[in-house]
Amino acid sequence: MIDHLHRRTFLSRGGVSIGSAALATMLGDSALRGGESRSASGLPAGVPGLPHLPPRVKRVIFLCMAGGPSHLETFDQKPELERLHDQPMPESFTAGQPIAQLRGQSLKVQGPMQSFQRCGESGQTISDYLPFHQKMADDICVIKSMVTEQINHDPAHTFMNTGTAISGRPSMGSWITYGLGSECDNLPGFVVMTSVGGRNPQPIASRQWSSGFLPSRYQGVEFSGTGQPVSYVRPPAGVDRVGQRSVIDAIAAINRQRYETLPDPEIETRLAAYEVAFRMQTSVPDLMDVSDESQQTLDMYGAKPGDGSYASNCLLARRLAERGVRFIQLYHRGWDHHGDLDRYMKICCSLTDRATWALVQDLKNRGMLDETLVIWGGEFGRTPMYQGKGGPGRDHHIKGFSMWMAGGGIRPGTSYGATDELGYNAVEDVVHVRDLHATMLHLLGIRHDRFSYPFQGLDMKLTGVEHARVVSDILT
Amino acid sequence: MRPLVRLLLSLPNAVRNWPAIVAFCVFHASSCFHLASAADEVSFNRDVRPILSNLCFRCHGPDAEERAADLRFDVAESALESAIVSGDADASEIIARIVSKDPDLQMPPPETGKEVDAEQLETLRRWINSGANYEPHWAYVPPSRVSLREAATRETSTAIDRLLEHSARTSFEPAPRADRRAQLRRLSFDLTGLPPDFNDIASFEEDDAPEAYSRRVDALLASPAFGERLAEYWLDLVRFADTVGYHGDQDHNITPYRDYVIDAINDGMPLDRFSIEQIAGDLLPDATIEQRIASGYNRLLQTSHEGGVQPKEYLAIYSADRVRNFSAVWMAATVGCAQCHDHKYDPYSARDFYSLAAFFADIDEAQHFRSGTNSLPTRRLPEIDVLDRTDRLRLEEVDAAIALAEAAGNGAQLAELKAEKEQIESRKRRTMITQTTEPRVIRFLPRGNWLDETGDVMEPAIPSFLGDLRESLGVASDQRLNRLHLARWLFDVDHGVGRLTARVFVNRLWYLYTGRGISPSLGDFGGQGQPPVHPELLDHLANVLIENRWDIKATVREIVMSDTYRRAVSADPELRQSDPYNELCRSQSGHRLPAETVRDAALEIAGLLDHRVGGRSVKPFQPAGYYRHLNFPTRKYKHDQGVMQWRRGLYTHWQRQFLHPMLKALDAPSREECTAERPRSNTPVEALVLLNDPTFVVAAQAFAARVLRETPTVTDDVARIDHAMRIAIGRDANDGEQVALVGLLQSERERYGADAEAAKRFLSESNDLAHWPTTTSSTERAAWSSVTRAVLNLHETLYRP
User: Fold this and answer.
1) Is the bond leading into B377 cis (omega within 30 degrees of zero)?
2) CA A277 to chain centre
């Protein structure tokens, strides 16, 4: 029944929707407010009853390294791989296993292509591709035992974002803004940015930030670091702020009058939607305009304003976090290294390593890291086997790979889980994608097994129907 | 009261969300009042089954693998054997377990987070005490013959109205009939997706003839735009799109299929033939070219030729996709849930899933793993090159004339005809079709795992609880069942499930023309779906569809001719509060128009809309760089020019991975899966689109130009504002609207008067697309364009009246 209640509350016809509260606030009209106290912003307050637990963090910044970075050249050092380099891959590992591009080929071991260092006080091993990560070894918790279920990019992203490869399910950012509401009245609660730069990238589909069966206002809104920052956020040429305001005022006056004769809550919602839209026309450019950042900050990130780079997006992620955006997802593509892995790792890491470090340090310096969960990782890892499109590379791999988390509630300077001696199978403390989701929700104060939405007769959950666990060993 | 119990149990939540709780209580109080009080009788389907399904079936339901204690509550024999003592709730184990405080005994188990609340418990008790009668699930029982009820207290005109009068016991008076303007606007939007012309509204307002309304209904049903509007819905169901969906999301060739859908609906093709041609057009004897195009239905799914796809895995994915879509579209069933295990709530077993999949095993589709290219469009063999219907007919004539000319030896005429023939043939478009091949072996996949080849080989069969197809249709035992058998079974009212199928579709028609299904879950007629609020009405409409030999237009006519359809949108806050979803149908639903209609209406108002029916997909203005994340190949979006820019929304290039942002903002689906019902949002992103999308800016300017053009002698601003309002919403501006719009006009005149450069920049958005009267100044043009922008954004312009 509680689900029906949610549905009633959140569907647009449900009487109490985003706009009624927002409008009530704007108009100071207590009759519309229905006796309910809400934050001044009047934005969706989230699902009643949430959070279930005292939250450890307010928001998530998910750094998606799209294409699937090699765990074997970043965080998972495998001496045995070195020893067996160039020898046939033992069949005990690969027989009957799903294999992507290497299917039907003879398989041989590819040794690590980069050296590793023990770093920081924690002594975590991090590869020399990632010198800035090495500097923050004590800030992050590396999970070395990730597994997923999808071996091709597109479905693997869908799986990472929605917990299933079937289209039409909500992305985790949508789930979280739906559950916890927004803290920000002039920006969307779920923002996605994809950086430019790097090598020929894999495509990324907008379904990755779809709200699926959840109401569409929870869908991720794509911000662009170059050109128009949000689709249609710029008024038409020749229409300045005053002109746009006049048009919106006239619309509002007429709609308000209509509401008096036909008190349809949809009209209130529309009034509020136009008001928020108008505010976004200022707030979005303000967000994107980093001229108030010091040169020192820009240098720390390696950001050049307006270049659309991952570094600039990391800086914008911090600005989004400051403004109360709930779920911020950055995609950096180009990690699909079937061949020439060494060359392309250098490119990818040079574009992302420093900025990632800067983001974590900047959050820390501003006292925000403790209320933020930062997650870094790809949609899968890469094979211990050699693939040679050009120079040596590696194929897609789903049975064991690495991700890291940092921020509130996470034990810093630790690693968790392990793959076998060749880095093929996660064998110790395996963390499935849905465990990652459960843990993320837990830190936000949400019990994953109690957080559902009715769809097609089922109580749909981000973590699905299979068992999912909160990885409590990595929590403080 | 169940909600009150919940309220007491979770007070902090209740405080947070007080208005919703109140609304919920009132809503439920009234629904109990109007639906359940009928005779204090507990109905298994209406009252009990939803409780058992939601709280018990997961472990005590159809799924054999998950079943606990060998007990199931979906089958009377099993339940009555041990857990339920008919007539004695106190002696029934089910009740003892529900009320138990012992966590080891308590049901549902505490860890499920589910609980039976006080009202549900009382319902179960009453049901058991009154004999624990089971009923077959409503959706699996053929529609009954409905007695059409004499009007009880009110004079109502049609069977629909009488049935609703009987079913919706309520003290609320029905809303009065909508005024003529609202009736015609509603009818035009619903049937054609376009607003009516002001003159049509005026003439309807003055038409006293008794058949004034029905004449409009018939004219709109006969309009080619009817097929376009209904096609939009059909294309959502079958997930029609211009791109492959996965990975590179390349274009594929399929637009002739869309033309087929529009033409078929406009031809009045019966729903059964329409469906059979799509599912199995290629298997029909001497299949026509249109039937082969129709068979493209089987090719509408998402496909991939990504480097590294494992054909076997993708064949399994495609197979599941087909079963999901087929069962959702034609059966409102979620058979897709049975891919890995028996369905948890409905009697579909995992074996049923693979048996259904086997019907589609003959579709030749593996070719693209080899032949798929990263080009635009990609290849998805088998494909054929076809002409549209007009060209096809003309070509027949030309061919005949060529034969005559040849016989007559008329060289000059022959050359002319051959040139025409060549020209026609150059307009061929390519389209994916279905071609039957030797059926692939379909195995039962344990837990849906395509790597596991130990499962049984599955033969085509319908879900076993629905019978035996071979027996039903009398198919010889040595003949393999195929898609044609399956499609015929769907519509066979004597030997198949035709009557059930009819119910699925009339429910959707009711949704299209009132805003909500009689059973609100349009895609799920299973146990977890919501039972019909007015079961007799649903059955009646199903019978209407069947009696009219599956004639869609006749059934639509039945709905829109009812008094219920013609009611005003109620302003009564009490009615809105107690019946927010308008389930009682006392009023009509004033919801936002669908995405395509919002676009089409703006362009129609602006006088820009291109009315030609059918054709290739088109690309309207789109924000630069919107496709930047696509690759293989990278995309450069080039919007169409000229009249192709002003095509109806349904012809928009449907890029699955990046649906046009205007369509997306207004809730059009990506068409990756079957969409039986679109959500209706109302968001800031939508507001940004309607304010700033160049299509709407150009439309506003063309609209302003139209207003100025059509009022050459008028000097009064108010009269011109009236004219604009008449075009947009069919009436003059009222006092408040005049004040707001005159005020806007004045302030914009001042602003643009002082800033000629701004006016010029603003007007450059439309360039030569708006046809301005030569005498008007830039300031006037720009200021009036601001007024028309406001008019296009009014709630009343955007909403179904």
Assistant:
1) yes
2) 24
DSSP states of A22-56 = HHHHHHT-HHHHTT----TT-----STT--SS--S
B407 DSSP β-pair partners: none
- Taking alpha carbons only, the member of A86, A148, A146 closest to residue A113 is A86
Q: Among B795, B797, B798, B799, pick the best mutation site for testing chain A contact (most A Cβ within 10 A).
A: B795
Task: Tell whether A104 is within 8 A of chain B (Cβ).
Answer: no
Residue B38: burial class (beta carbons within 10 Å; 0-12, 13-18, 19+): exposed
Phi-psi region of A15 (alpha: psi -120 to 50; beta: other; left: phi over 0): left
Decide: A127 and A114 in contact? Cβ < 8 Å. Answer: yes
SS3 B457: strand
Contacts of B427 (CB under 8 A, 6+ apart): B387, B388, B391
- Give the per-residue pLDDT at A432: 98
**CB–CB contacts below 8 A, A to B:** 304
Share of chain A above pLDDT 70, in %: 90
Of B524, B580, B682, the CB nearest to A457: B524
The answer to whether B94 and B55 have CB atoms below 8 angstroms apart is: no
- Helices and strands (H and E) in chain A: how many: 14, 17
| Residue ranges of chain B whose pLDDT lies below 70 | 1-40, 149-156
Indicate the pLDDT class of residue A100, thresholds 50, 70 and 90.
Answer: confident
The pLDDT value recorded for residue B63 is 83
Report how far residue B359's alpha carbon sits from residue A232's, in angstroms, rounded to the nearest whole number: 46
CB contact under 8 A, A247 and B793: yes
Pairing of strands A221-223, A190-194: parallel
Are the CB atoms for A113 and A392 separated by under 8 Å?
yes
Residue B634: partners with Cβ closer than 8 Å, 6 or more residues away: none
For chain A, give the mean pLDDT.
Answer: 88
Contact residues for B739 (Cβ-Cβ < 8 A; gap 6+): A253
The mean per-residue pLDDT over the stretch A175-201 comes to: 88
Q: What pLDDT, on the 0 to 100 scale, is given for residue B150? A: 64
- Give me the helix-helix angle, A18-27 and A265-288, nearest 10°: 80
Q: Is B105 helix (H, G, I), strand (E, B) or coil?
A: coil
**Is residue A165 over pLDDT 50?**
yes
| Cis, bond preceding B108 (omega within 30 deg of 0) | yes
- B441: Cβ contacts below 8 Å, ≥ 6 apart: B361, B457
Structure tokens at B491: 């519509």
Cα separation, A86 vs A76, in Å, equals 19
B711: how many CB neighbours lie within 10 A of its CB?
16
Q: Are B704 and B788 in contact (CB under 8 A)?
A: yes
CA distance A232 to chain B (A): 5
DSSP character for A149? S
Name the one residue in this structure whose structure tokens are 């043939």: B425
B416 versus A216: the higher-pLDDT residue is: B416
Strand partners, A147: A432
Token pair for residue B57? Answer: 């079936």
Q: Per-residue pLDDT tens for A271-296?
A: 989 998 999 999 999 999 999 999 99
Is residue A81 within 8 A of residue A348, CB to CB? The reply is no
ipTM reported for the complex, 2 dp = 0.89
Alpha helices in A78-125 (DSSP H): 79-83, 91-94
Q: Tell if the CB–CB gap between A270 and B687 is shorter than 8 Å.
A: yes
Strand partners, A419: A426
Nearest to B111 by CA among B73, B70, B51, B58: B58
Type of residue found at B447: R
pLDDT band per the 50, 70, 90 thresholds, residue A200:
low
Neighbouring CB atoms inside 10 A of A43's CB total 26
pLDDT value for A43 = 55
B800 within 8 A of B590, measured Cβ to Cβ: yes
